[in-house]
Amino acid sequence: MIQIGKKELYIEDILVFLYFAIMYAHNAPYPRLFTICSIVIASGYFLSLVFSGSLIIDKEQYRVLGWYLFFAIYELIVSFVNNIYQTLLWNNVLQNILILFIMCCYVTSKEKFIRLLKVFAYSALYFGMAAWLTSPVSTWGTTEFAGITQSQRNTIAYVVGTGFVLFMFFWLEKKNKLHLVCAMLCALVTILTGSRKGIVQLLIPVFLYIALQEGVRKRFRAIAVVAVVGAFVVLIASNSTLFMDTYGTRFFEMFAEDTDDASVLAREGLAELGMRLFWLKPIFGYGLGASYQLTAQYGWGVVNYFHNNYVEMLTCGGIIGFVIYHISFLKSLSVSWRNRHDNNLAKLILTLIAVYFVLGVGQVTVYYATFYPILFFILKGRSYVTEMSTNGEYDEIEDYEY
Q1: Are the C-beta atoms of residues 22 and 32 closer than 8 Å to each other?
Q2: Helix %, strand %, coil % for the chain, to 5?
Q3: Helical H runs in 107-215?
Q4: How confident is the model over 38-52, as pLDDT tens digits?
Q5: Which of 195, 65, 98, 97 is nearest to 143 (CA)?
Q6: How many whole angstroms from its chain centre is CA 284?
Q7: pTM of the predicted model, to two decimals?
């Protein structure tokens, strides 16, 4: 542990922060660096378990890893039965296993779960700042917005937007102004990516955090504040050439019946193709990664997935794979919903689930490492939701500095 004034920094937290920072801010330019870090950190945890003599599979601690291993083994069997195996995709699966193992080893208590959320939030903020401060103004709102991170703008929007959700959670817990400032910075970067999904991702937590407020008075006050701020933002945005050129008609094209937006049309065509293929093998599917070959066979060129997580899951995993993958999310949803009253952690889990399921309509999350820390928060978080006291404070970590 490192003491800086009144602040205490744990070496393990610093390592995890650097791990997330490399995963997001530096993975695109240096992909091998992230793989090396994953192997080194996972090996370190494994060796520490071996030498401590505690290499025992704790059902609760490793529950998320067990869920994913079961799902991956099922998909691997289906892939071999159908003679479809994508090396690149299964390399991603191995990477996801290492990610989940690292986080399972880190989170040994409720306190450490909260610390992991905070570490990730600051890593997401770092990712956003690195992209924003190294991107020329001319790239703001375009596909070139990435700076030194070289990441795809939807990835930046998703990760940094998740940072916004987490910082808002910490602000609701402690009303620390620093967390509110960090949340606003994350929101700004998410907007500057020009990602339409990023805008949707920002709107979801705002709506849910208001809807889940306790008491009519708090809810009304929150609505009033958001209405005033929203009107101010809309006024500025509607008079901003940059904003209108970036979003404007592009945003509403997602909801138009007769759209001519190439991106929307391509996604609709791929989803239609995926559902046609699903009905040919509805029970078991074709195996994870089958979309890489299937889309090419039907003339989609470089496109190698269906751009819709539900279609991807139904086509590749069939009904069985789809259920195996989503059953844990439904359990987290159920537990969080039942314990949502005076429980900000439950509200956070509900918000992350809503973001995941809504954005899954327009992107594939099932085998990309980018999304697995967030999935871990959702699936592991339910273990601690019921441990919240009635006043929303954490029983065992009342003095923990957020």
Answers
A1: no
A2: 70, 0, 30
A3: 110-133, 153-174, 177-192, 196-211
A4: 999 999 988 888 877
A5: 195
A6: 27
A7: 0.85
